[in-house]
Amino acid sequence: MENSKNIITRRDFFKRLGAGMSTMALASCAGGNEEVIQSTTQSVGEMTYRTTPTTGDKVSILGYGMMRLPTKAGKSARDGGNTLADEIDQDMVNRLVDYAMEHGVNYYDTSPVYCQGKSEAATGIALSRHPRNSYYVATKLSNFSPTLWSREESIKMFENSLKNLQVDYVDYLLLHSVGNGGMETFQKRYLDNGILDWLAEQRAKGRIRNLGFSFHGDIRVYDYLLSVHDKYKWDFVQIQYNYVDCIQAKGTDNRSIDGDYLYNELVKRGIPAVIMEPLLGGRLSKLPTHIVERLKQRRPEDSVASWAFRFAGSPSGILTVLSGMTYMEHLQDNIRTYSPLDVLTDEENMFLAETAKLILKYPTIPCNDCKYCMPCPYGIDIPAILLHYNKCVNEGNMPKSSMDAEYAKQRRAFLVGYDRNVPKLRQADHCIGCNQCVHHCPQNIQIPEKLRMIDGFVEDLKQERI
Fold first, then answer.
1. Nearest 5°: CA angle at 216, between 212 and 333?
2. How many CB atoms lie within 10 A of CB 372?
3. Which residue, 127, 93, 132, 91, is CA-closest to 108?
4. Do residues 316 and 37 touch, judged by C-beta distance below 8 A?
5. Which fold does the domain 10-360 belong to in CATH?
6. ∠ CA(436), CA(79), CA(320), 5° rounding?
7. Dist CA 47 CA 59 (whole Å)
8. N or C: where does the chain have the smaller number of CB atoms within 10 Å of the terminal CB?
9. Using the 8-state DSSP alphabet, how is residue 188 labeled?
């Protein structure tokens, strides 16, 4: 185990940059002495690969997150809303997977709950058309509901995953979102029923090749699971990591979103990290115009999203970076970014830190559209409300005063867009503040408070009180 004093965070780097810290040290960005991970970067064709230390898997640095699969309505299956939007376009999924495979992407991440329960089957259909040894499939034990906490139901979920994926073994199996609900919930989901030990037994039998967990929520659960690493020998851990969270957590004690802390705790133990939310649910690809221009001035040919993906992939202890790619253009752009990965320089890290500070000046709500808050018992479309608000902030359609020249245009854009994106019976004015959604939010958003704020803003616009 590495001594914790040898772990170098980005914050340490910023302090020491002036003292001449080398580019080699920054290549790890959030951690020093990462050779313990033994995740050397290799290229097969053009895609960059990293190595899983326990199994020797050569994993593409770009991982395909199968949580936003395309539907026949041309949207993401995560959006839902009607029959056509719910029906996955299997032909398009097959084409996307084929293209990804042809360009070196070999890691595919799904879950029994993704795409309203349809992701595993769609993923299984697409991947089964390829040789089994040409890809790694990751899925999760997503036993969120108390009705699934029994040993029998949890085992049934695992066995059903194998069936849906059309495989005899899972390459990467995760305990899903272990911090949600705190230690008490984790205890009931994985310890009291003996299911964690059962999963370890399945790994020994070869039905699971790599065992890990994904984390959101209560940091005590994260710390506990790492404290028992000597017993369970985690092969990998999935964490949220992006350049805004790393700055947002600076100077706070919120270790739940502190990418530096989460990452460095893994580096100490030689556990490779799988990265989720590199774009913060798409927010880092949909930035205010002046911030887009700032990024484009530096690398005119690169997409806005590529900066976030380069940030997420640069530390050498990171195994793969997940992206939920609904459309071919997103897949192609991410393949370009990672074929091969151009590791961030010292100066580019400083530039992104300043960019993050500018982003945080805008009052967007940190919703990642994960939909863990759904369904609302009162039918409110929480993500759609929050995302419409964020979109208007980023596009400058936030009326501030009737005296402004753009007031009428901005007012209309906000109100018309609100009614188009959120049916009236599902809008914020129907929230009664039951707080059920708050306990499920990985970002710890005080959702009823935000809904009241947005509802008040909408009413002020309707009455032209702004």
1. 80
2. 20
3. 127
4. yes
5. TIM Barrel (3.20.20)
6. 90
7. 10
8. N
9. I
Are residues 259 and 302 in contact, defined by beta-carbon separation less than 8 angstroms?
A: no
Structure confidence by residue, pLDDT tens digits, 346-401: 999 999 999 999 888 766 787 878 888 988 998 999 988 988 888 888 777 777 77
Contact 106, 138 (CB under 8 A): no
Give ∠ CA 253-258-264 in degrees, rounded to 5: 110
**How many residues can be counted in the chain?**
466
CA distance 251 to 237: 25
DSSP type of residue 187: I
232 vs 276: CA distance, rounded Å: 22
> Is-cis flag, bond preceding 363, omega within 30?
no
Amino acid identity at 398:
M
Helix (H, G, I), strand (E, B) or coil at 54: coil
**250 has a pLDDT exceeding 50:** yes
Q: What does 271-316 look like in DSSP terms, one character per residue?
A: --EEEE-TTTTTGGGS--HHHHHHHHHH-TTS-HHHHHHHHHH-ST
pTM of this prediction? 0.78
Residue 3 class from Cβ within 10 Å (0-12 exposed, 13-18 middle, 19+ buried)? exposed
- Tens digits of residue pLDDT in 415-458: 989 999 999 999 999 998 898 898 778 777 889 888 888 888 88
Residues of the chain with CATH 3.20.20.100: 10-360
CB atoms within 10 A of CB 71: 26
Provide the token pair at 121: 């089957």
pLDDT-based confidence at 466, cuts 50/70/90?
Answer: confident
* Short-list 37, 66, 99, CA closest to 339: 99
Cα–Cα distances in angstroms (integers) from residue 1 to residues 10, 22, 260, in the given order: 21, 24, 18
DSSP 464: T
Contact 149, 191 (CB under 8 A): no
Contact of 307 with 352, CB cutoff 8 Å: yes
End-to-end CA distance of the chain: 59
